[in-house]
Design a protein that fits this description.
This protein is α+β, with helices and mostly antiparallel strands. It is built from five helices and 13 strands.
Length: 239
C-alpha cells in the first residue's frame, strides 16, 4: 500500500512511485451542507472519469493541469503541486449565497462571471476572502492573483461552452490551483477535480439539477444525475 498523504471529504492522496507525482483516489462520500456525509455508491468512479476527461480537454486549449493519466476506475496519477490556500469560485448565475445573502432571484443571469475567493479550510466553512487580504497575508503575489483570475475565467468560459453543447448550464464552478516550478519560473496549475461534486450543473431546458445539489433533498437521485452527465459527455468508462 502506498503512503497516504492526505484524506479529504471525497478523495484520498497517496505517494506515487515517482517523486514528482501523487495518486488521487476518488471515493463515494458526499458531504452535505450540515457537514454530515452520505455514501453514493459509484460516485467516485464517475467523478474520476469526468474529471480526467475534462482536464484533458483543458490541456488542449493550453490550460496547465495536474492530471497525468487515469490509472483505473477510481484513481489517477497527478503531478505534485504547491497548492494555493484559496479556492476560486466562478458564478454565471445567481444561486446559493447570492440568493440567501443578497436576496437575488435563483437563476438570475449575471452580465459577466463573478469571482469569489474562499479560504481552503472546511473546518472554517470556507470563508470568503478578498484579494487585498490574500495579498496582505502573503498567500499570493499581486501578479499571481491577476494571473489566477485570468486562468479561472478561461476555464469557466471554455467549460460553459462545452457543457452548453450537451444541453447543460454551468451555473458555477469551484476551482483550485497551485504553483509549479518549470525550471525557469513558477507557473499556475489547475488542481483537484472538475466534476458534479465541484460544479453546479443544471439541465438547460428544465433546470433539473445534475450535481451535488440534489443530495440535500433527493439523495437517492444523485447517482442518476451524475450518470446523466457522464452519458451526455459520451465518456467511455472501460478503464
Amino acid at each position: 500500500m502506498k503512503e497516504k498523504i492526505y484524506t479529504g471529504s471525497s478523495k484520498t492522496l497517496y505517494q506515487a512511485d515517482e517523486d514528482y507525482a501523487l495518486i488521487m483516489s476518488f471515493n463515494d462520500t458526499l458531504k452535505l451542507q450540515d457537514k454530515s456525509s452520505i455514501v453514493i455508491s459509484g460516485k467516485g468512479a464517475i467523478n474520476n472519469s469526468i474529471s480526467a476527461f475534462l482536464m484533458q480537454k483543458l490541456e488542449l486549449i493550453g490550460v496547465e493541469t495536474h492530471f497525468i493519466q487515469k490509472n483505473n476506475m477510481r484513481q489517477q496519477l497527478i503531478q505534485f503541486v504547491d497548492v494555493y490556500p484559496v479556492q476560486v469560485h466562478v458564478s454565471s448565475l445567481a444561486s446559493g449565497r447570492y440568493v440567501t445573502d443578497f436576496g437575488m432571484e435563483d437563476g438570475f443571469v449575471f452580465d459577466s462571471p463573478i469571482i469569489d475567493f474562499r479560504v481552503k479550510n472546511g473546518d472554517l466553512n470556507y470563508p470568503i476572502i478578498n484579494e487585498h487580504q490574500i495579498y496582505s497575508f502573503s498567500w499570493l503575489s499581486k501578479k499571481e492573483i491577476r494571473d489566477l483570475k485570468k486562468v479561472a475565467i478561461r476555464v469557466h468560459d471554455f467549460l460553459t461552452g462545452f457543457f452548453a453543447g450537451i444541453g447543460i448550464r454551468l451555473v458555477d464552478i469551484k476551482l483550485e490551483f497551485g504553483r509549479v516550478f518549470n525550471g525557469e519560473d513558477y507557473i499556475i496549475m489547475l488542481t483537484d477535480e472538475i466534476s458534479p461534486d465541484t460544479c453546479k450543473l443544471w439541465d438547460m431546458y428544465n433546470n433539473q439539477k445534475l450535481c451535488y445539489e440534489i443530495a440535500e433533498t433527493n439523495p437517492d437521485d444523485v447517482i442518476n444525475a451524475y450518470q446523466e452527465v457522464l452519458k451526455r459527455l459520451n465518456i467511455k468508462t472501460d478503464v
